[in-house]
Amino acid sequence: MKATTPKTVAGNSSKIQGEGDYEAARRYDKSAQDFAESGKVAEAARKAKPLDPKEAEDLKQAEAIGKSRSKGEDPGDAR
Length: 79
Description:
By secondary structure, this protein is mostly helical. It is 51% helix and 10% strand.
């Protein structure tokens, strides 16, 4: 496999590696970790629940469509 080198996009000095920017990934990871440790996860989950049975069914259908295109669950993911 050929190694890729960081590229710069015209007018942008950020380094792009493959499909993303390492600095942006670090910022996202830090933000996600901070949120997980904030104690606000349960509240956010309650606010994200479906508003009515129709929305719940729509979400289940969307999940089924997504899973139909999947190669399966990652055995390393624990839910």
